[in-house]
UniProtKB/TrEMBL annotation:
It comes from Penicillium nalgiovense. GO terms for biological process: phenol-containing compound metabolic process. Gene3D superfamilies: Alkaline Phosphatase, subunit A. The modification 3-oxoalanine (Cys) is found at C87. It comes from the Eukaryota. This is Arylsulfatase. Keywords: Glycoprotein, Hydrolase, Signal. One of its GO terms (molecular function) is arylsulfatase activity. Residues 43-391 form the Sulfatase N-terminal domain. It catalyses: an aryl sulfate + H2O = a phenol + sulfate + H(+). The conversion to 3-oxoalanine (also known as C-formylglycine, FGly), of a serine or cysteine residue in prokaryotes and of a cysteine residue in eukaryotes, is critical for catalytic activity. Pfam families: Sulfatase (PF00884).
Length: 590
């Protein structure tokens, strides 16, 4: 009997313990659920990056679905710039948040650029998709990633950072009807006979379905090759890289009959403009102009496939119920010119056509139907994605988060650092203008700064042959009148900038460029603090105060000792500006 009582007592105790345990677990689960409700899932990110898409030539007026789903439902940043007007350097800056002089990936192929240089510099183990994975994101990518990422080196090593990927590979990247893609760690697959936009559309939809089925927030990047020129592998040699007009999908071949390149003042101007090799370009005859109009229409037609691709992705997000919790970013790796300044089709210059690109952002908290005037750049995009994902910014970011909402209180800047090394590349049927009819033009190296502030809109550049450019875009929006004085000129016609003489403005611009050409981190964001850390100077307007004339007049000048194909510090003259410590006194910044 005593034994039975003991067993009964033990059973009651066990029941009580179990009940308490279940009650405790229920309470803990309710706490987790309550915390989960208070901390909603991080937003998803869909990132679309086109190739060579212009802003200044009005391509965005020909993409109605992108306008409807992203531009009209978000914010258009109309003062968005790339920092290097060439595919691979621009993309590496985008994925690292660092200027090209800090990545030292400055070309599209070795030894100064391309995927092998990206790996050599250690970025395959330290760039945006990996950072997002560490923050809890599933990451996906399809399309073009880097130049010189080939059918031979795709596994040496594989690109890191993605849960799943399907990359375009050289030498077939730009072949619209003969592309090769490489999925995850599998061998490359040829898609000869299929249009590359149809191929990437299917891959992007599949990855979006995979991402939506996951339990974690996702980052999906889609990088179609359009509207880049078509390049067949047989047209690539060490001396030439012949690029023909892009090939649209068959259903779009008939569109835009009669559409022409905008006939702006800088389109095939009667008088030459620019400096260096650009100033020597001949006036284009009617046959060349007609061909360039055809080239322009081909680009617009090729973009129609991208427009449909984006429309399909947004529709799928809407069907899934995830659209309102997804940031969508649309941009391009660099801009494009056709006929401006008498140039054949191409990029690589510092003109507006090459460095201004579309940037549309929609998503949680982003103002709808808004056009923002803030100066933004490609090195600001990685910090912006960190902001979306709730990740603290890195100290080595050369940019700062873009103000996507009215209440945004982050640092802003009025400047863009634009830099380029090596050869210019010209495209199209009339592109053989380099030495011996080459499509590669040497000595296209330059450093420049683009400034937009209250009452000024300027571009200042120093080329490796030490020619200079200065354009006031408030009075000369098409950059036809170089204000920089030559040896035979004093200040031109008493030209003044913010009430000061041209020479005083040039002193400030050159000193600013001296900082920016080798800046790192915070000094890229707040360069005036390097020059005048004690004085209340944060803009060109402040720096033009008369009391600083002596300080800026004593600054070393930005210059080059020789032209080189890559970022060779020894070729780039003085690197260190003077720093003002107490108004008009100064010492050397170290």
């Amino acid at each position: 009997m005593n034994l039975m009582k003991l067993i009964t007592a033990l059973g009651l105790i066990a029941e009580g313990v179990i009940a308490l345990y279940l009650q405790s677990m229920q309470s803990a689960l309710q706490s987790v659920l309550k915390h989960s409700e208070a901390q909603p899932r991080k937003p998803n990110i869909l990132f679309i990056i086109t190739d060579d898409q212009d802003l200044q030539l009005d391509s965005i007026s020909y993409t109605p679905l992108i306008t409807k789903h992203i531009r009209d439902q978000g914010t258009f940043f109309r003062n968005h710039f790339v920092t290097t007007a060439l595919c691979c350097p621009s993309r590496v800056s985008l994925w690292t948040g660092r200027q090209a002089h800090n990545t030292n990936v400055t070309d599209v192929h070795p030894p100064y650029g391309g995927y092998p240089k990206f790996v050599e510099r250690g970025f395959n183990d330290d760039f945006l998709p990996l950072w997002l994975q560490w923050a809890g994101y599933d990451t996906y990518y399809t399309g073009k990633m880097f130049n010189a990422h080939t059918v031979d080196n795709y596994h040496s090593p594989h690109i890191n950072g993605f849960n799943a990927s399907d990359f375009l590979l050289d030498p077939y990247t730009y072949s619209y009807l003969n592309s090769t893609y490489q999925r995850n760690h599998e061998p490359p697959v040829s898609h000869e006979g299929e249009h590359t936009i149809d191929v990437i559309t299917g891959k992007a939809q599949d990855f979006l379905d995979d991402a939506l089925a996951g339990e974690r927030p996702f980052f999906l990047a889609v990088s179609p090759v359009a509207p880049h020129s078509n390049v067949d592998p047989g047209n690539i040699t060490s001396e030439n890289f012949y690029m023909s007009a892009p090939i649209p999908l068959e259903r779009h071949e008939h569109l835009f009959q009669g559409v022409r390149i905008p006939r702006t003042a800088n389109f095939n101007p009667d008088q030459p403009s620019g400096v260096s090799w650009v100033n020597d370009l001949p006036l284009q005859n009617q046959s060349v102009v007609d061909y360039h109009d055809h080239f322009y229409r081909s680009r617009l037609r090729a973009l129609q496939g991208v427009d449909e691709l984006v429309g399909g992705l947004v529709t799928r997000l809407e069907e899934s119920g995830q659209l309102d919790n997804t940031y969508i970013i649309y941009t391009s790796d660099n801009g494009f010119h056709i006929g401006q300044h008498r140039l054949p089709p191409g990029k690589t210059c510092g003109f507006e056509e090459d460095i201004r690109v579309p940037l549309f952002i929609r998503g949680p908290g982003v103002t709808k139907g808004y056009v923002h005037d803030a100066v933004t750049t490609h090195v600001d995009l990685a910090p912006t994605l960190f902001h979306f994902a709730g990740i603290p910014a890195r100290d080595d970011f050369d940019g700062t988060a873009i103000p996507v909402a009215p209440e945004f209180e982050g640092e802003r800047h009025e400047h863009v650092t634009v830099e380029y090394w090596g050869s210019a590349v010209v495209e199209g049927a009339y592109s053989g203008i380099g030495p011996g009819g080459s499509t590669m033009i040497p000595n296209n190296t330059y450093k420049s700064v683009r400034l937009l502030g209250q009452g000024y809109n300027l571009y200042y550049s120093v080329w490796c042959n030490n020619e200079h450019e200065l354009y006031d875009l408030s009075t000369d929006p098409y950059q036809l009148n170089n204000l920089y004085p030559t040896n035979s000129q004093a200040d031109i016609n008493g030209t003044r900038i913010l009430g000061r003489s041209l020479n005083q403005a040039i002193n400030r611009l050159d000193a600013l460029l001296m900082v920016l050409k080798s800046c790192q981190g915070e000094t890229c964001i707040q360069p005036w603090d390097v020059l005048q850390p004690v004085d209340p100077v944060s803009t060109l307007q402040h720096a033009l105060n008369e009391e600083y004339d002596g300080f800026y007049g004593a600054q070393p000048q930005v210059s080059f000792d020789w032209c080189d194909a890559g970022y060779i510090v020894e070729a780039e003259g003085a690197q260190v500006p003077l720093t003002s410590r107490h108004g008009v006194s100064w010492d050397v910044w170290v």
